[in-house]
Design goal:
two-stranded antiparallel sheet; 75% helix; mainly alpha; 2% strand; 11 helices
């Protein structure tokens, strides 16, 4: 079982290699949201990014005090990168959606790639242990940047290739449940991460159905819903990690009561 994640990773990379170039959909930047609020164009798609920043701040404030503790030390370099990427996603995605176009898409893709890389390193540190999480965070962070740079380079030559970037979106959906199952991670964390993965998949579906959802519901587009569902997914991840410290406050309160 312990070699299964490595085998699957190699298999996915091989499948991408055999498949060939994965291009950005021709009309990707044609979003259904044309709302305006306080002079902000595409307000639904822009403002729905606020949640990413709020979740990132919540996660940082909650996890930072425990970064050197036994329960978080191994995973912290990854979760740190995940939270930084998540925070930057709020601004990068908002900037992109103000005036959607490939010239701005880089600033949306890069922080998302960093968040995916961080999440992989964080959960791997939690489940595999070891002292190389900082190095792994740097390596995967550089890979995330390189995957976006590869898309920019290939797109500028008329043959944009998303495969390296997509790898960072596919691997967490498969490797994280495997690692947690093999390591027998706490049930609460497994449920939280499973919920996050499910929400993310639904978010991708609403992204694809952007115009159909907008035409059906009228008041919200599929891409705006994607942002909201993805925010809920990241909140589930942060909640799952923070639950391991849920008893600390009660224990401290109990200690104060006894001492008094």
């Amino acid at each position: 079982m312990k070699v299964t994640p490595a085998i699957i990773t190699v298999g996915i990379i091989a499948a991408f290699a055999v498949h060939g170039r994965v291009a950005q959909p021709a009309h990707y930047n044609d979003f259904a949201d044309h709302s305006a609020l306080f002079g902000i164009p595409h307000a639904g798609d822009v403002l729905s990014n606020i949640g990413f920043a709020l979740v990132a701040i919540w996660g940082w404030l909650t996890l930072w005090p425990h970064r050197d503790g036994d329960q978080l030390r191994a995973g912290w370099p990854g979760y740190r990168l995940f939270l930084i990427g998540l925070f930057l996603t709020a601004f990068g995605s908002a900037f992109f959606h103000l005036a959607p176009g490939n010239d701005r898409l880089t600033w949306d893709m890069l922080p998302i790639a960093l968040a995916g890389a961080g999440l992989l390193v964080g959960v791997r540190g939690d489940t595999q242990g070891g002292s190389k999480a900082n190095i792994e965070a740097i390596i995967l962070g550089l890979y995330a940047a390189a995957s976006v740079a590869w898309w920019v380079y290939t797109d500028s030559h008329g043959a944009g290739d998303l495969r390296p970037y997509l790898l960072l979106q596919v691997l967490p959906l498969i490797l994280i449940p495997l690692w947690q199952s093999i390591d027998r991670a706490p049930r609460t964390e497994r449920i939280a991460f499973a919920a996050a993965m499910g929400l993310y998949v639904v978010a991708k579906v609403t992204e694809v159905l952007d115009h159909q959802i907008a035409d059906t519901l009228g008041f919200v587009s599929g891409h705006t819903l994607k942002h909201l569902l993805a925010t809920a997914a990241t909140a589930a991840i942060v909640w799952g990690v923070t639950r391991r410290f849920a008893g600390d406050g009660r224990r401290k309160a109990g200690t104060r009561t006894i001492s008094e």
